[in-house]
């Protein structure tokens, strides 16, 4: 089962996105790394590393991040984990909310890593107006 990690500068945003995603896919492994260790706004590569390791079930992990420096922190976190695991950790080029929900639902259906990642990527094209 592909794990999902939600990275945000705000712990409230990360937890809120997780809450919505789990409304759609109730018992799926979704982990968050929001904010800094002291509760501030920002990202912490160590917290991201821990979330990735917790989300790993052996089938890969899809990570979704909110802003540019979160993307850099994900990169640092990947450098800190076991290289074998790092190969199966994919950062989705997707909007945080839509991508996380789509990826979580796809992963909950038992889809492989590549399909979960593609589903997250496809959320970029979701039309919101007619």
Automatic annotation (TrEMBL):
<dbReference type="GO" id="GO:0009401">
    <property type="term" value="P:phosphoenolpyruvate-dependent sugar phosphotransferase system"/>
</dbReference>
<dbReference type="GO" id="GO:0019563">
    <property type="term" value="P:glycerol catabolic process"/>
</dbReference>
<dbReference type="Pfam" id="PF03610">
    <property type="entry name" value="EIIA-man"/>
</dbReference>
<protein>
    <recommendedName>
        <fullName>phosphoenolpyruvate--glycerone phosphotransferase</fullName>
        <ecNumber>2.7.1.121</ecNumber>
    </recommendedName>
</protein>
<dbReference type="GO" id="GO:0016020">
    <property type="term" value="C:membrane"/>
</dbReference>
<keyword id="KW-0808">Transferase</keyword>
<comment type="subunit">
    <text>Homodimer. The dihydroxyacetone kinase complex is composed of a homodimer of DhaM, a homodimer of DhaK and the subunit DhaL.</text>
</comment>
<dbReference type="InterPro" id="IPR036662">
    <property type="entry name" value="PTS_EIIA_man-typ_sf"/>
</dbReference>
<dbReference type="GO" id="GO:0047324">
    <property type="term" value="F:phosphoenolpyruvate-glycerone phosphotransferase activity"/>
</dbReference>
<keyword id="KW-0418">Kinase</keyword>
<feature type="domain" description="PTS EIIA type-4">
    <location>
        <begin position="1"/>
        <end position="130"/>
    </location>
</feature>
<comment type="function">
    <text>Component of the dihydroxyacetone kinase complex, which is responsible for the phosphoenolpyruvate (PEP)-dependent phosphorylation of dihydroxyacetone. DhaM serves as the phosphoryl donor. Is phosphorylated by phosphoenolpyruvate in an EI- and HPr-dependent reaction, and a phosphorelay system on histidine residues finally leads to phosphoryl transfer to DhaL and dihydroxyacetone.</text>
</comment>
<dbReference type="InterPro" id="IPR039643">
    <property type="entry name" value="DhaM"/>
</dbReference>
<dbReference type="InterPro" id="IPR004701">
    <property type="entry name" value="PTS_EIIA_man-typ"/>
</dbReference>
<dbReference type="InterPro" id="IPR012844">
    <property type="entry name" value="DhaM_N"/>
</dbReference>
């Amino acid at each position: 089962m592909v794990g999902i990690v939600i990275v945000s500068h705000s712990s409230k945003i990360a937890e809120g996105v997780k809450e919505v995603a789990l409304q759609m896919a109730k018992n799926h492994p979704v982990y968050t790394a929001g904010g800094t260790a002291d509760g501030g706004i920002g990202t912490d590569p160590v917290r991201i590393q821990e979330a990735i390791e917790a989300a790993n079930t052996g089938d890969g992990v899809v990570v979704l991040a909110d802003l540019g420096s979160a993307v850099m922190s994900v990169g640092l976190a990947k450098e800190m984990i076991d290289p074998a695991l790092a190969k199966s950790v994919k950062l989705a080029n997707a909007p945080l909310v839509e991508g996380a929900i789509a990826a979580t639902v796809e992963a909950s259906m038992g889809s492989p890593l590549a399909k979960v990642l593609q589903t997250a990527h496809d959320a970029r094209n979701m039309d919101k107006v007619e």
